[in-house]
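Mods, move this if it's the wrong board.
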Amino acid sequence: MWLHHILSEAGLRVGLAGNVGFSLARQVITDDQPEYFVVELSSFQLDDMYQFRVHIALLMNITPDHLDRYHYNFEEYALAKMRILQNQTEEDAFIYWGEDEFLSRYVMMHGRLNRSSAYRCVGGGAHPCIGRLCERSSSLGEGRCAGWCALHQ
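Not the wrong board. Structure tokens:
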């Protein structure tokens, strides 16, 4: 909801959907669609995601929730969360919390993650990227970040 608030305050028409706000399906069938959507997706929703493409994926941490659905296996659950990246292209971005052990290890093992740019956020506090924006320089094909965010190479 924080991201929706920031984008709305910046003057963008933004829809809030998924586990919060209104149904995404309900919003995309209306004539008055927002320019952008902020969508919170659960591991349950990601399990059934095959063609959905997220242009900017943000994942701050992975905690051991809903392990019963994943045979009480944290790795299996975490991999379900990483499905958010499966359809990203080189024009897309993945912003993640660099101090989360699983996320950092996954990014190191998978390099540029389906050709998308990965932005690593680190630093003190629960939300180190609040008020700071990461930018992607399309001319260089690399990311430039302000604040505590840095491109993971």
